[in-house]
Amino acid sequence: MRKVSRPMASNKTRKRQNRIRINGKLVAIMLGLIIFSIPVCGGWWLWSTGEANRTIDLLRSKLISASLNAGFKVDEILVVGREETKRDKLFNAIGLVRGAPILSFDLDAARHRVEALPWISRASVERILPDTILINIEERQPAALWQYKGKFSLIDRNGAVILSNGLQRFSELVVVVGKEARVHTSNLLALLAAAPELEHMVKSAVWVSGRRWNLHLKGDIHVQLPEENPAAAWIRLEKYEKAHHVLERDVTVLDLRMPDRLIVRKVPRRLDEDKKGRET
Length: 280
Description:
By secondary structure, the protein is an alpha/beta fold. The protein has helices spanning 11-35, 44-49, 51-69, 87-94, 107-115, 185-193, 196-199, 230-244, 269-279; strands at residues 76-80, 120-128, 132-139, 144-148, 151-155, 161-163, 175-177, 202-208, 212-217, 221-224, 251-255, 263-266.
């Protein structure tokens, strides 16, 4: 009797068959988990004694074990968006190791733990079945240094504290001073950006009496901004600087609190002469 050889299935066909087989197992396991996560009729006595809950927990445990045997376990953890967050701290927050059952992993709880990390603004945690966890994170962007009671902290535009140690590499950021200064940081940065030719000169900003800003510029110049419409006053100073170079005239204080004038206080002459004498 002559043997008839059958053509071997192509790689594409085998992959499709494997995918169908895996999907079939997944459907069965997921249906089981759904069914046993919903209370079913079984008698008031079973529920009141907790017997039904124990039965459901046992069946759920068996289904999770079955999912492991079917290949639904964590083999890879992908992280997108990490720059400043330390790798070990992130993975500790995720709380997951390779080989763990992927279907029993609590995605929402993991997201909350990740978002509690100092650098993390937002996060999402997803399953990519059968074996991958995908984590997308959005980190906070350093915006300023906040000084309060002699201590410095790195904050983002919304005033959220990111770090309180190792701040040396952020020393070029503007310093906001005062208890409530950090919650007004976003408005301050928008204000400073309104006069781009002066923005880079600002070293620090003090939130005064819960109402307004005093700015400290390079060259030890202090600018007093008004409570109402400080952006207009700041832009006015930029125009004065372009027209009259007021920042080059040995001034110590520029008072912009009056809407129709600029009050200038200069370095006292004696101090100015002493300074020139020391330079010669």
